[in-house]
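User: Hey, quick favor. My workstation is busy. Could you predict this chain's structure for me?
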Amino acid sequence: MSATQRLTLFAGTALVAAAFGLAAVATAGTAGAVSSTDNTFLTEISAEGISYDTPKAAIGNAHDVCSALDDGADPIDVGREILAHTDLSTHQAAVFVVTAVDIYCPEYTGYFE
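Assistant: No problem, here it is.
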C-alpha cells in the first residue's frame, strides 16, 4: 500500500471517528421511522451503554464503519479511531464496530472469526 493510499485510508477512518464522536457523547433521541434491522442495531448498542444523538446518526455511523471497510480499512483501526475520538470504552468501541459489521455489512464478519 502506498503512502498516499495509507493517508487516504487514515483520513477516511478519521472521518468515521469524528462523525461518531459527535454522537457518542449525546443522549438517545426519539426514534423516527427505522427498519427492524436498524432497530436491532440500536437495541444492541444501547444494551452496551452506547448512547447516540438520534437513531439516524447512529445508523449512519454504522454505515460509515462499513464504508471504511469497503475502502480497505482494518476493523481494528476503525475501532481505535472511534476510541480515540469518543468517550466510549474499548469494549464499547469494539461492540459498535462488530455490531455494525454483523448488522449492515456481514461480508466482513470473517475479520472477527
